[in-house]
Amino acid sequence: MIEFKEIDRNNFFDVIDLRVAEEQKAFVAPNVFSLAQAKAFPECECLAIYHDEVLVGFTMYCMDDDDKEYWIYRLMVDEKHQSKGYGKAAMEKLIERIKQDQEHKVIYLSFEPENSMAKRLYEKLGFEADGRVIDGEIVYKLAY
């Protein structure tokens, strides 16, 4: 079972030690960068992803200051735990968490055009291209 935990002194170093596969490094910022970004942008929420008490990944989402909508900024699963369904399960759980805010009806995310794995995952979850490209990344949205 997937669960989210806050990042604190007990798991901080483990979270920043998580790594994606070498060929994926261009697609996702290092977790230490995301944690620093969340310090400067307090609207961002960082969560550690656990499967049965084992740390398997990291996610960050926020209410975007510009468009006042939810964005999933990061999702990563450590290379040792990939291809086990954890990314999809974590996204489903994160989507449900965001949907609790009844005042919003759309979730955005963006990804590098070359990241076909992310594209397949997001499309399976119901995300669709919204026609925008921001900083070279394709923007997808999930309306609910």
UniProtKB/TrEMBL annotation:
PROSITE patterns: GNAT (PS51186). Keywords: Acyltransferase, Transferase. It holds the Pfam family Acetyltransf_1. CDD domains: NAT_SF (cd04301). Gene3D superfamilies: 3.40.630.30. Residues 2-144 form the N-acetyltransferase domain. One of its GO terms (molecular function) is acyltransferase activity, transferring groups other than amino-acyl groups. This is N-acetyltransferase GCN5. It comes from Cytobacillus firmus DS1.
